[in-house]
Amino acid sequence: RAKERGRNHYQLYNHAIGAQVMEYVAIENGIRQALERSEFQVFYQPQINLATGEIDCVEALARWLHPELGWVPPNQFIPAAEEHGLIVRLGEWILRTACSQTRSWQKNGLPHIRVAVNFSVKQFQSPNLCDRIMQILAETDLEPQYLELEITESLVMQDQNTVIKMLRQLQSLGMRVSIDDFGTGYSSLSYLRLLPVSKVKIDASFVRETPQNNEDAAITSAIIAMAHNLNLIAIAEGVERKEQLEFLRSHNCDAVQGYLFSRPVPAHEATLLLQAQFK
Ligand code: C2E
Ligand code: MG
Ligand code: MG
Ligand code: MG
């Protein structure tokens, strides 16, 4: 009987591994196919400069329109793409699409705005990142000053010296770098002064209950003050309500991004927002 149980165990075990392998292969093929079939899209969410009231930058946010599952959010496929070694290819596709769209707004006489593209840790681990970015900028005919790279604190925690060197190189080529989801990592504030970045994005989790929650409001205003003391631009993410905007304005936050102004929208809708601003 023990032997039988052993064999069942073995079969069960084997089956579970088999299912995992199947799922792994399915996800990998899914992402590969999606790239080939152009199922990915880039949406754009405006950032509003509070001094001018105008959109001066849009964040590029990836979307996957899966033929059966419908819209798959980036929090589901970006980690999968990283795990399957596909993030570099996918990331380059997103970057090329965002740069080419931004250049086409310029060519169509719309205001010259920057585009902010999210980069994951894995993309920074490829040694020729700077060259690849420069190549994509050349291909799409976009000047580096219109590209902003959004990175997270976790990236810098990896391998400080290498990352700092890469960020310096990117900045010396004219690109801007911003720290995304600021305040959610476990990095110390002092390291921020070592980083060649120009912008801090206050994470939406602090903005959500600002100003009614005193602690969150204190953190939000402290991040703005700290950013300014370090000569960095402060932008708040996830701004949904007027009270948040008033608080941010009164604390001299430089820019805002959130549903109050616009959700992330497809390129043609972003075009309309830019046209409206131009008139
Ligand atoms: P993130 O870079 O912090 O992007 C901001 C997220 O907040 C976006 O979610 C955006 O849709 C959402 N958001 C913006 N305003 C509001 C608001 O007022 N209220 C609320 N509740 N949410 C708001 P999304 O598009 O689902 O993206 C989630 C995350 O996935 C991004 O966070 C980013 O980390 C990652 N991601 C998205 N696109 C890419 C990409 O092209 N490459 C990489 N590596 N990561 C990406
Ligand atoms: Mg971002
Ligand atoms: Mg963020
Ligand atoms: Mg986020």
TrEMBL record:
<feature type="domain" description="EAL">
    <location>
        <begin position="24"/>
        <end position="278"/>
    </location>
</feature>
<protein>
    <submittedName>
        <fullName>EAL domain-containing protein</fullName>
    </submittedName>
</protein>
